[in-house]
Every structure is written in C-alpha cells, then in structure tokens.
Amino acid sequence: MSEVALLEKAKAVCEKRGARLTPTREQVFKLLSKQEGAIGAYDLLEQLKTIDSGAKPATIYRALDFLSQQGFVHKIESLNAFVLCHHFGDCSHPVQLLICDNCSYIEEIQSENLDLAIRSMADASGFKISHQIVEAHGLCKKCQN
C-alpha cells in the first residue's frame, strides 16, 4: 500500500474512532511509512526536527504512544524501535515479527495457530492477555545465502 493510501486509511480509522490525528502525529506516521524496517525514537526525532525544529523527545514519544494505541505502529521491545503496521484496521490483532539480525529486515506475520496456543496456555493459567507481540530473531532468506 502506498504512503498516501496508508495515511488516508489512518485518517479514516481515526475519524471512525473519534481519535485526533494531529499534524505532528501525521508527520510521524509519514516518517514511519517511508522507513525501511524499524527505527528508534531518537532517530525519528532527528527526522522530525527537519520538519519541526521545535520537536522534543516528549513530542515524538507522545506521537508514538498515540500511533501505537491506534494500532498503526508496533514497538519492537528487543530493539527499542518502532515499525509501521501496514494492515491496521478495525480490529486489534496479535503481532508476530520475524527480525533479521544481519540486515534488520522485519516481516510481520500472522499465525492464528500461534495466537490460539498462547491464549490457551494463558487461559489455563487464569491469565488474560491484553496485548501480544512475539518477536523471533534470526536470518532472513537473503542473508542466509
């Protein structure tokens, strides 16, 4: 999906939810949509400063929190970085990421079987899952050759 189409979809989701995609949030979304792979908050901040010289760390973190709450971005805990979700929409979904340790390629996959297995184990323990991100590190196909 193109950057423009992703932004239009994000605007429509925000409008439907009554959430406000402020100019700063929109700029951070655009920066993420142009990004190949994951990016750290401070690297995003440096890019945002070329557009808004007054941007501060709190600016980027507030925007990332909003985008994350809306399901537009995922935080990769092991890398302390963020990646845009290209298939956000009306429902929340479990996140499963394949992360190449060599070239930093990131692919989001969806496995209903994995989600069901984790939820079944959680249910058996009396645990209620509110948010799920599974990160798998290794080598992508390109880096294996």
UniProtKB/TrEMBL annotation:
GO molecular function annotations of the record = DNA-binding transcription factor activity; transcription cis-regulatory region binding; zinc ion binding
State the coiled-coil residue ranges. none
Pfam families named among the record's database cross-references: FUR
Residues given in the record as Zn(2+) binding sites: 100, 103, 140, 143
**Localized where?**
Cytoplasm
Keyword line = Cytoplasm, DNA-binding, Iron, Metal-binding, Repressor, Transcription, Transcription regulation, Zinc
Q: InterPro entries this protein is in?
A: FUR, Fur_C, WH-like_DNA-bd_sf, WH_DNA-bd_sf
Annotated family: Belongs to the Fur family.
Q: Under which name does UniProt file this protein?
A: Ferric uptake regulation protein
> Lineage of the native species?
Bacteria, Pseudomonadati, Pseudomonadota, Gammaproteobacteria, Alteromonadales
Underlying gene: fur
